[in-house]
Amino acid sequence: MNYPSRKLKKLPPYLFGAIDILKKRAYEKKLDVIDLCMGNPDLPTPKDIVERLCDTVLNHSRTHRYPQAKGMPKFRKAILKWFKKRFGVELDPEEEILALIGSKEGIAHFFMSWLEEGELVLVPSPCYPVHYNGVILAGGEVYTIPLLKENNYLPDLSKIPEEVARRAKILVLNYPNNPTTAVVKDLNFFEEVVRFAKKYDIIVLHDAAYSEITFDGYVAPSFLQVKGSKDVAVEFHSFSKTFNMAGWRIGWVCGNRELIKPLEKLKSYLDYGVPTFIQLSGVKALEIEDKVIGETLNEYKRRRDYFYNGLKKLGWEVELPKATMYLWAKIPEPFSRLGSLQFAELLIDKTGVACAPGIGFGPYGEGYVRFALVTHYNRFHDALLRIKKFMKEGGKYVKTS
């Protein structure tokens, strides 16, 4: 009998797959599910972008053919222009920008293009699951760096053992951070990372998927703004959150050309790239960002403020995030002795409110849950009422769990 790859056996159960089972069970019980689990934007893609897609598909049949794998020149030049305006960073559109079928795909394939069996990657915890799952699928080995509240959820590079740093090949970063919502306040930390990477000859992979989802006057920097960063780093960007285009599957990687080349080569063997009509829609999105981003940010901020204040009144320990579309919340008493997965299971089973258990983001996510702000504003009122009742009855649930 044949067996699947041993690499698949090394993977933990996929976080959102496990939650989907819980949601299915809740639906079968006729519960009214309020899904705050996956960071899947519920807001519509801006009308101008959709109209660009429709016009292109209907009237430009050549865009139905195989696309250019690295991204069409117009798309890469639009990124060049946007990146220069947004971050003040110059990019070479020929060799320093590569189109991706979403940043998740690109990150996983970057690991495959750079890792040999057993090579070490420094991965913060908690983190977006592909940051460690991608390493495992590529045959690499994960060294976990804790992201702790007392250090503002920044990795303490000074605590990485010398022998580990010398062995490491890649360091993964993600700011604004998913799931903790942490941000980099200035460029000082990124400058420290560049010095660390150069000292130990380490590649820096920065996932910047949430760079545009920011609030209260905070502006997220790019890792590539730091002097010397292009010597060691690549940065991944996505249209999914900025333009509510999660299902469109489009993003890009930019930075060091020598780091991008192997990824481009690998992808040329595995896929044909982003469909041309979607790339042209991406061009339109970048052109109109200033026109459309405000509405998205205002709605997320409205949801954030309401749900944050509601949880605080119920006694939850949660910080007001300056970025992302999430709340990262510590599991309250009397549930703190439960694991986050068991708590999330209880919450959806008893209330229909679905959240993501912290353990799904790595070992240092235990004790927390993540709420995604991805449902209609009025539903957060219902969610808080259910959570309030759940907490009043908490002792009963803890005893029977």
How would you describe what is shown here?
This protein is α/β, with parallel strands linked by helices and about 400 residues long. The chain has two domains: about 140 residues, Aspartate Aminotransferase, domain 1 (Alpha-Beta Complex); about 240 residues, Type I PLP-dependent aspartate aminotransferase-like (Major domain) (Aspartate Aminotransferase, domain 2). Helix content is about 45%, strand content about 15%. Strand 3, helix 6 and strand 4 form a beta-alpha-beta unit. The protein starts with 5 loop residues before the first helix and ends with a helix. The mean pLDDT is about 95.
What distinguishing features does this structure have?
Aspartate Aminotransferase, domain 1, 14% strand, 13 helices, four-stranded antiparallel beta sheet, 401 residues, 2 domains, single chain, Aspartate Aminotransferase, domain 2, alpha/beta, 13 strands
Quick summary:
This protein has 401 residues and is α/β, with parallel strands linked by helices.
Strand content: 5-15%
CATH topology of the largest domain, what is it called? Aspartate Aminotransferase, domain 2
Count of separate DSSP helical elements: 13
Biggest sheet: strands side by side, in what order? Answer: 2-8-7-6-5-3-4
Quaternary structure state of the chains depicted: single chain
The global form is: globular
The radius of gyration computed from the alpha-carbon positions, rounded to a whole number of angstroms, is 21 Å
Helix and strand run: HHEHHEHEHEHEHEEEHHEEHEEEHH
Q: In which range does the helix fraction lie? A: 40-55%
Per DSSP E runs of 2 or more residues, the count of β-strands stands at: 13
Mean pLDDT: 95
Biggest beta sheet summary: 7 strands, mixed
Structural class: alpha/beta
- What is the CATH H-level superfamily of the largest domain? Type I PLP-dependent aspartate aminotransferase-like (Major domain)
Q: What top-tier CATH class of the largest domain fits best? A: Alpha Beta
